[in-house]
């Protein structure tokens, strides 16, 4: 069974969020730890957003590109813009996402779609 999530970044130049959907392993010990450890720069997050919606997140942008819905020929998979975080969370809650990850000010935040903040940098026992 999938643990759906979304991955987003806040762009201070546009004052908007942009986000993509990720179908598999969205729990903090999966997508969360991979984002924290492998996508830890503004440049790598920008490359991730360019892929659009993905089936799964891998350690490298090249491997993640292989799971892009774009390669399957899907449409309407580009990063989605949102003005407000609450609007973005409601959208992803409506498509059964369980977690959201937001890159802002050089760090990742993790949200359950309650929403409740989980600090990825203080996670213990994140078996990767």
Description:
By secondary structure, the protein is of the alpha+beta class. It has one domain. Helix content is 28%, strand content 25%. The protein has helices at residues 28-38, 42-51, 61-65, 85-94, and strands spanning 5-11, 16-22, 80-82, 99-104, 107-112, 116-118. The protein has a six-stranded mixed beta sheet with strand order 3-2-1-4-5-6, sandwiched between helices. β4 and β5 form a beta hairpin. The model has no long low-confidence stretch (mean pLDDT 91).
Helix content: 25-40%
Share of β-strand residues: 25-35%
Mean pLDDT figure: 91
List the uncertain runs.
Answer: none
Count of structural domains: 1
Number of strands: 6
Main sheet, how many strands, which sense, barrel?
A: 6 strands, mixed
Q: Which structural class matches the secondary elements?
A: alpha+beta
Largest beta sheet: strand ordering: 3-2-1-4-5-6
Rg calculated over all Cα atoms: 13 Å
Q: Whole-Å distance between the termini? A: 19 Å
Element-level helix/strand string: EEHHHEHEEE
């Amino acid at each position: 069974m999938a643990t759906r999530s979304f991955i987003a970044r806040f762009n201070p130049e546009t004052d908007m969020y942009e986000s993509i959907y990720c179908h598999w392993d969205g729990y903090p010990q999966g997508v969360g730890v991979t984002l924290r450890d492998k996508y830890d720069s503004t440049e790598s997050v920008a490359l991730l957003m360019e892929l659009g919606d993905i089936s799964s997140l891998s350690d490298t942008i090249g491997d993640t590109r292989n799971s892009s819905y774009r390669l399957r020929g899907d449409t309407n998979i580009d990063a989605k813009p949102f003005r407000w975080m609450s609007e973005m969370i409601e959208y992803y809650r409506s498509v059964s996402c369980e977690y959201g990850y937001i890159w802002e000010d050089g760090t990742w935040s993790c949200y359950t779609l309650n929403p409740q903040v989980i600090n990825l940098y203080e996670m213990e026992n994140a078996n990767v």
